Structures are given as structure tokens and as C-alpha cells.
């Protein structure tokens, strides 16, 4: 006990620090979540359901789902591809490529939306051509999907690159020596190894894709019932002083956030369990289990 | 069964260097697809911004990026982001410390909750913080009578930016703190250091790079933030109007040239911040590599 006390703090210091930290978490994280729930239910459960049954709310929910269903798989394929080529090979310019993959994280969402307006808007590069062919990208669904793809671009690659780098290429090389094709190697050797990282990346990417506001706001045009995603619908309702309706739609997004955190926690448990299981095996790699 | 036997020699056979490099298939395919997708979604659109800027004359550009209203917005954006990142550095370090070093009931939940700002859409964060801090809100109603206003002014901006930057410092410092060697602290104690001296001279230097990285990430995120801020800021020109909102305002008036010019300034700043963060991370890796 006395040995321990030399590398920790006196009890009162510990309790003060814990108290301060918990106070901060309560103020900045718990209260905002609680506020969403109470504001949404301020006028009772019936008003809450009425707000969610609105056709405009429904079309916003549908558009948000469509956007995520397109953007997340696109970034998933990219993430796996980028992680494979960055983690499994050595080549010139690798560090630079990794930096470029990270770039959308540091670009302001508003700028991300603007660049698509400059490409596809009426005065943009492809604007006249698109107008001549009667294709709408800006102020329409394709622009929303593109802007969402931009802001969620790095999520899955970011999770996979360090994970795949850590695992090296030995197992894949072994599969190759045994005559597996490239796809077989990927499906049966690499994928089982990275599955938790993949799920982790996908849920974070999905949360951002469904919740993106700034970039989507620039390209959407805010046409009610047509180009409003859930976060944009929240903004419109809020600015129209329909507080209960705004918080009702916001509560769905908050629920999504909480669900994301729960899944993330479950994934972390599984990942740690798998790591422990791998560590407790004898020094030989557990290749024998694999077909 | 045979796999385990075969894999060991396979790794040891000295292959010619070129062959070793390309033993896994798919290099051309994945690199090609990565570059194609990166170009289509990120690089070409961003270059559209840069090209558009070059079509402006120097005077047009300067007029757009250096008008008093825009300069006021830079001061506000960077000032508020700096204060928010500073608060996050202090409380992020505290949270990381408490989560790594101490045990208390509900620790797992707090740990999971730290990521909430990553998962909660910014618009939701914006309206719920506003609801809390406005004059009739849970917190606002106690502060308003004392003349403290937290919503619809600069205070609100800082608070929103603290919220969205909160996970960065915690998540960069936490793993480094977990890897800190207890032996060093024991040695310091044996040599007569007080607990504060041990923290100041032994623990702090080893987590400083991570702390700075987290600070820079929170700052970079705050500079570009839009969704959570606009609800709580009040958005008064010259007073509480952030730079991303200036871009939106110019777009709504069809001033594409002006919006592009200001966006280019922001893009350059993001580039610089990205390079700073990369350099900090490299420093951190060297530091932890030298220790172990």
C-alpha cells in the first residue's frame, strides 16, 4: 500500500481531479444530450410523434438514409483499397499520399461544399454543359451525396491503415505461397484480421454522413421535401421557431449518435478479446485454423 | 496444419528485393483506384477552388479577403478557436489523466461518452447548447439575472467550439499516458522528487507532444466549424460572425468570387495546420520511439 502511494496522489487530490473531470463531462456532454430529449418531449409524446409524422420530416429522413447508403459504401471500398496499398507496400510518395487522404478532415465543411458549387454550379466548370444536358447536381441529391462523400472521405481509411500496417504481410504471403489467389487472400486472410477496424470505421463514417451539416447546407439549396437532409430540416424548423419539431428530428440524430457510441464500445470489447486470444496462443501464428 | 509449417520458411527464404516487394498482388489495382477516387472526390474539386481564385485580379482578391468585416471574422474565428483549444487542452489532459490513472464508478461510461462530439451531428449540438444557455434555458436562467450571457454572443461560440473539440486532446493523450512507464516515476520518487515535481519533470515532458498534437487538432477542427456555431453565435456582423459564415453569406448574394477568395485563405490555413499536425505526430513518434 505504501509503495503504491508514492506513485499516486493524496486522496483529496484524486477526488478533486475526478470531481472536476466529471463536472466537465456533465456540463459539456450529459446536459446537451438530456436537453435534446426534454426539449423534444416538452409538449408531450403526442406532439413528438406528430412532428415525426410530418411528410417533410419523412422525406428528410429518407434523403439522409439514401445519402449514407451511397456515401458509406463508396468510402468503404476506397478505404480498403487505400489501406491495402499504403499498408502492404513500400513506394515513393507514400507519406504524401497518406497526408492527402487525411486532407478532407482539415478542410472546413463549408469550403468542401463550395468546391462542388464551383465545379457543378450554374457558373462552375461543368455548369453550362450540365445545364445543356438537363442534369442537376448542385441544389439536388447528387451534390448532397458528393459533399457527404468528401467530408467522410478519410474515416475508414484512417482506421484501417494503422491496423493493417501493424499486422504486416506475413499471413498474406503465406496464403500466396499456398496458392491462394489475390481475392482469396483478401477474403479469407486479411478481412477476418481487419473486420473490427472495418466495422469501427463504417459506423463512424455513417454517423458523420448522416449528421453532416455545413457542406451539405452549401450544396442543398434547402428545398423542403426534396433536398433537405435531417440536419438541414432541424435548422429550418428551429429557425421557424418550431422548437418541439426541431428537437424531435434532432432526437433521432442524437439517438443515432448514442447508438454509434454503443456499437463502438461493443466493437472495442470484441477487438480486445480477439487480441487477448491471439496473445494467449503459443508463439506460432494461429494459421492452422484457417482453411 | 501444413500452413503453420510452411509459413515460417516462406518468410525466411531470401527473395530478390523486387520480387519481395510485389509478392502480394493488387498493388497496381489498389494504388490506381485510390489515386482515381482521391482525384475525383478531393483533388480536382479543390483545384477548382484554386483555379477560380487565379481568375481574380489581385485587387479583387485583396478586397474580398481583407475587408474589415472579413478581418473581424478571422480574429473571432482564430481567437475563439484558440481559447476553446486551450480549455480543451487543460480539461482534456485532466480527463485523460483521470480515465487512465484512477478508478471510479461509471468510468467506462464516461470513457465512451468522450466520443459523443464525434458522433453527434453538429446542428444537434448547436441547438441543444443554445437551448441550455439561452435566457430561459437550464443553465442560462441562473446566469442571466447576474448579467452573464452565454448564448448569442462570442461566449457561445467558444462553448460550442469546446464541445466539438473535446475528444481530440483526450484521445491523443490517453494512449501515451497508458504507455508511460511507472518505473520512471518510482525512480523520481526514490530520488526525492515530490509528486508535483514528478509530474512536472517526468510525466509532462513525455506527454507534451501528444498534448500539443491534440491541441492543434482541436484548433484545426474549430477553425473550420460551422454547424454548431451558427445557432449559438447570434451572427452579428463584425461581432460574432465566423469566417465560414462569411463564405455562406457571400454565396447567398451570388458573390462567387468573394466566397472563393475567402475560402482559399481558409484552405491555405487548413494546409498549414495539417502540416503542423503531421510534424507534431512525427515528433511524438520519435519521442516514444526513443523511450522504448
Notes on the structure:
The complex is a heterodimer of chains A (about 290) and B (about 290). Chain A contains 14 helices and no strands. With about 290 residues, chain A is mainly alpha-helical. With about 290 residues, chain B is an all-alpha fold. In chain B, helix 10 packs across helix 12 and helix 14 (about 245-250) packs antiparallel against helix 15 (about 255-290). Mean pLDDT of chain B is about 85; it is low at about 1-20. The chains are: A mainly alpha (about 290), B mainly alpha (about 290). At the A-B interface, helix 2, helix 4, helix 5, helix 6 and helix 8 of A face helix 1, helix 3, helix 5, helix 6 and helix 7 of B.
- Unreliable stretches of chain B (pLDDT < 50, length at least 5) are 1-20
Q: What is the strand tally of chain A?
A: 0
Rg for CA atoms of chain B: 25 Å
Going by helix content, strand content and strand pairing, the class of chain B is mainly alpha
Q: Which consecutive residue ranges of chain A, at least 5 long each, have pLDDT under 50?
A: none
Termini gap of chain B: 36 Å
Label the overall shape of chain B: globular
The coarse silhouette of chain A is globular
Query: Which class do the helix and strand fractions of chain A yield?
Result: mainly alpha
User: What's the order of the H and E elements of chain A?
Assistant: HHHHHHHHHHHHHH
Mean of residue pLDDT values of chain A: 89
Strand content of chain A: under 5%
**Measured distance between first and last alpha carbons of chain A:** 51 Å
Amino acid at each position: 500500500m505504501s509503495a503504491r502511494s508514492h506513485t499516486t496522489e493524496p486522496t483529496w487530490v484524486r477526488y478533486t481531479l475526478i470531481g472536476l473531470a466529471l463536472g466537465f463531462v456533465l456540463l459539456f456532454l450529459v446536459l446537451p444530450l438530456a436537453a435534446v430529449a426534454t426539449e423534444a418531449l416538452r409538449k408531450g409524446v403526442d406532439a413528438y410523434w406528430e412532428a415525426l409524422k410530418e411528410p417533410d420530416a419523412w422525406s428528410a429522413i429518407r434523403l439522409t438514409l439514401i445519402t449514407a447508403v451511397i456515401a458509406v459504401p463508396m468510402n468503404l471500398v476506397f478505404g480498403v483499397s487505400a489501406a491495402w496499398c499504403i499498408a502492404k507496400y513500400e513506394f515513393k510518395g507514400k507519406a504524401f499520399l497518406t497526408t492527402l487522404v487525411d486532407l478532407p478532415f482539415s478542410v472546413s465543411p463549408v469550403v468542401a461544399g463550395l468546391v462542388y458549387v464551383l465545379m457543378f454550379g450554374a457558373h462552375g466548370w461543368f455548369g453550362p454543359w450540365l445545364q445543356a444536358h438537363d442534369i442537376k447536381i448542385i441544389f439536388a441529391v447528387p451534390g448532397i451525396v458528393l459533399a457527404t462523400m468528401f467530408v467522410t472521405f478519410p474515416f475508414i481509411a484512417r482506421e484501417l491503415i494503422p491496423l493493417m500496417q501493424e499486422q504486416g504481410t506475413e499471413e498474406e504471403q503465406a496464403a500466396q505461397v499456398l496458392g491462394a489467389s489475390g481475392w482469396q487472400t483478401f477474403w479469407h486472410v486479411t478481412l477476418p484480421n481487419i473486420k473490427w477496424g472495418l466495422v469501427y470505421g463504417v459506423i463512424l463514417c455513417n454517423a458523420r454522413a448522416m449528421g453532416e451539416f455545413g457542406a451539405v447546407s452549401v450544396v442543398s439549396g434547402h428545398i423542403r421535401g426534396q433536398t433537405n437532409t435531417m440536419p438541414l430540416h432541424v435548422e429550418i424548423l428551429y429557425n421557424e421557431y418550431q422548437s418541439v419539431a426541431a428537437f424531435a428530428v434532432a432526437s433521432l440524430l442524437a439517438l443515432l449518435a448514442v447508438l454509434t457510441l454503443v456499437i463502438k464500445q461493443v466493437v472495442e470489447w470484441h477487438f480486445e478479446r480477439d487480441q487477448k486470444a491471439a496473445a494467449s496462443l503459443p508463439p506460432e501464428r494461429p494459421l492452422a485454423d484457417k482453411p | 496444419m501444413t500452413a503453420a509449417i510452411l509459413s515460417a520458411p516462406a518468410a525466411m527464404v531470401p527473395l530478390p528485393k523486387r520480387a519481395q516487394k510485389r509478392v502480394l498482388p493488387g498493388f497496381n489495382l489498389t494504388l490506381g483506384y485510390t489515386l482515381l477516387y482521391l482525384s475525383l472526390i478531393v483533388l480536382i474539386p479543390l483545384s477548382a477552388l484554386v483555379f477560380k481564385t487565379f481568375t481574380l485580379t489581385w485587387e479583387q482578391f485583396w478586397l474580398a479577403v481583407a475587408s474589415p468585416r472579413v478581418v473581424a471574422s478571422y480574429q473571432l474565428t482564430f481567437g475563439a478557436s484558440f481559447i476553446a483549444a486551450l480549455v480543451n487542452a487543460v480539461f482534456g489532459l485532466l480527463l485523460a489523466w483521470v480515465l487512465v490513472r484512477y478508478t471510479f464508478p461509471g468510468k467506462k461510461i464516461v470513457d465512451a461518452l468522450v466520443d459523443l462530439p464525434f458522433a453527434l451531428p453538429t446542428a444537434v449540438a448547436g441547438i441543444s447548447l443554445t437551448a441550455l444557455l439561452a435566457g430561459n434555458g437550464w443553465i442560462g436562467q441562473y446566469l442571466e439575472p447576474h448579467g452573464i450571457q452565454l448564448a448569442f454572443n462570442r461566449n457561445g461560440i467558444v462553448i460550442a467550439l469546446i464541445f466539438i473539440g473535446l475528444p481530440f486532446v483526450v484521445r491523443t493523450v490517453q494512449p501515451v499516458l497508458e504507455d508511460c512507464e511507472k518505473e520512471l516515476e518510482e525512480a523520481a520518487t526514490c530520488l526525492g522528487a515530490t509528486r508535483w515535481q514528478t509530474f512536472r519533470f517526468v510525466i509532462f515532458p513525455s506527454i507534451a507532444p501528444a498534448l500539443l498534437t491534440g491541441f492543434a487538432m482541436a484548433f484545426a477542427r474549430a477553425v473550420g466549424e460551422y454547424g454548431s456555431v451558427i445557432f449559438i453565435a447570434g451572427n452579428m456582423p463584425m461581432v460574432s460572425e465566423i469566417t465560414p459564415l462569411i463564405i455562406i453569406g457571400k454565396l447567398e448574394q451570388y458573390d462567387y468570387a468573394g466566397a472563393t477568395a475567402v475560402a482559399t485563405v481558409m484552405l491555405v490555413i487548413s494546409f498549414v495546420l495539417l502540416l503542423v499536425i503531421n510534424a507534431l505526430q512525427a515528433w511524438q513518434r520519435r519521442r516514444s520511439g526513443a523511450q522504448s
